[in-house]
């Protein structure tokens, strides 16, 4: 079994990768990602962009080692061609034990993660749970301090630790989910729409938390996000998907300047509009 190498560089290697969903309900197998190739160097922050249905979540889940996780068989992602490795671990035929080892270092914030927090646990237990599951022996005080620091960055009062998900707003639940995804100190974090459902005032706090985490750990981040503020603040390179194919890859400014792709054009326009607002406000 190949063990994850935390210093692997590139951290993520993808070559001619194809992924599909199995045939179900009389339908045919569906090819969600086709012939995609790219490398993500160690410590980079990369944004994965593309319109709805372009394959972003599928690729993200697969690279996070969560491809086979879905309860329904029909939603399990099938590797159908090419090559991919994360932290030096080949993803093609990842056995259960190898997957468990890898996912200890690769965090995945699933889309709409705030909506799937365990309802029976309070926020404190939700945050401690990933650690407790891994080991009974951990430094509770040090961890408590780290949680307090994160709560401060993300502007949630410590009293929220005693509350249950149903007592929080949608945006607060999402902020808790983002904190939870960082609890195991992932070397790679793949985050699907981290600011989804969070109001405009609080989105920068999530950006701040991810920036804090990145500076503290040097982790590699893959962000799926339409949040211009987040893209501008964190991402250096972008990957653009369209109908499962990679149609753009490069420096965020160069890709937005070229903007020969409809979806990216819209994002670039939004970016210019935001920049204009900021100038107008000065
Ligand atoms: N369980 C499934 N079975 C069959 N096809 C699926 C399944 N899940 C997703 N797909 C299809 O795979 C394609 C890629 O979906 P995916 O969720 O990866 O896109 P996305 O870019 O993340 O979209 P969004 O931005 O809306 O989340 C879509 O055409 C979608 O309909």
Automatic annotation (TrEMBL):
Its Gene Ontology biological processes?
Answer: transmembrane transport
Keywords, ordered alphabetically: ATP-binding, Nucleotide-binding, Transport
Q: Which InterPro entries match?
A: AAA+_ATPase, ABC_transp_ATP-bind, ABC_transporter-like_ATP-bd, P-loop_NTPase
Q: Which GO terms describe its molecular function?
A: ATP binding; ATP hydrolysis activity
Q: Could you tell me which residue ranges the ABC transporter domain spans? A: 12-268
Superkingdom of the source? Bacteria
Pfam families, alphabetically?
ABC_tran
* SUPFAM superfamilies linked to this entry: P-loop containing nucleoside triphosphate hydrolases
Signal sequence span per UniProt?
none
Note whether Ribosomal protein occurs among the keywords.
Answer: no
Name the protein family: Belongs to the ABC transporter superfamily.
Q: Name it.
A: ABC transporter ATP-binding protein
* Species this chain originates from: Leucobacter viscericola
């Amino acid at each position: 079994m190949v063990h994850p190498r935390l210093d692997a560089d590139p951290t993520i290697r993808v070559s001619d990768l194809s992924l599909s969903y199995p045939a179900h309900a009389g339908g045919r197998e569906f090819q969600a990602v086709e012939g995609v190739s790219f490398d993500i160097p160690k410590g980079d922050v990369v944004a994965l962009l593309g319109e709805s249905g372009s394959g972003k979540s599928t690729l993200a889940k697969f690279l996070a080692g969560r491809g086979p996780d879905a309860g329904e068989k029909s939603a399990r992602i099938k590797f159908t061609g090419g090559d991919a490795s994360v932290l030096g671990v080949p993803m093609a035929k990842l056995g259960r034990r190898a997957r468990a080892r890898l996912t200890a270092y690769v965090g995945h914030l699933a889309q709409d993660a705030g909506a799937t927090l365990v309802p029976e646990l309070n926020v404190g237990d939700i945050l401690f749970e990933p650690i407790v599951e891994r080991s009974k022996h951990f430094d509770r005080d040090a961890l408590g301090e780290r949680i307090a620091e994160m709560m401060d960055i993300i502007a949630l009062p410590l009293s929220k630790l005693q509350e249950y998900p149903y007592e929080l707003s949608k945006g607060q639940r999402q902020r808790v989910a983002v904190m939870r995804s960082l609890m195991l100190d992932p070397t790679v974090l793949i985050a699907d729409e981290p600011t989804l459902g969070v109001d405009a005032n609080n989105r920068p706090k999530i950006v701040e938390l991810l920036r804090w985490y990145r500076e503290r750990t040097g982790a590699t981040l893959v962000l799926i996000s339409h949040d211009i503020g987040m893209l501008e603040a964190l991402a250096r390179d972008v990957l653009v998907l369209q109908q499962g194919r990679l149609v753009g890859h490069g420096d965020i400014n160069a890709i937005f300047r070229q903007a020969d792709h409809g979806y990216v054009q819209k994002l670039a326009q939004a970016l210019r509009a935001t920049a204009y607002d900021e100038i107008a406000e000065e």
